[in-house]
Amino acid sequence: MERIDEDQWEMIAEVDDIPEGEPYQWMIGDDEVALYRVDGEIYATDNWCTHADARLSNGCLKGHEVECPLHSGRFDIRTGKALCEPLTEDVKTYPVRVLDGCVYAKKI
Predict the structure, then answer these.
(1) What single DSSP character describes residue 90?
(2) Three-class SS state of 102
(3) pTM score over 0.70
(4) Residue 57 · residue 91 · CB < 8 Å
(5) Domain 9-106 has CATH 1.20.1260.10
């Protein structure tokens, strides 16, 4: 049976809290993050666009790409990679695991 080391992982949400195909705002400690569920997989990034002061959780999710609501820059939610202009800086991603319907983020 798989277990989570609670010294290294923090329970942040239940899978059912995260809508399929839509960004969802959550907190990991003091950090505001965007959670995404795509084809049943969960991903997490910083919630703030690296280009301007906009929340990615207010953006549009298309497959594994989230589009910033302010200037339409897109990030790959799996890697944080900035995919187009005006973005020049990647967004931070968080390792996540799912166990028994709960989503855990790696403590950093």
Answers:
(1) P
(2) strand
(3) yes
(4) no
(5) no
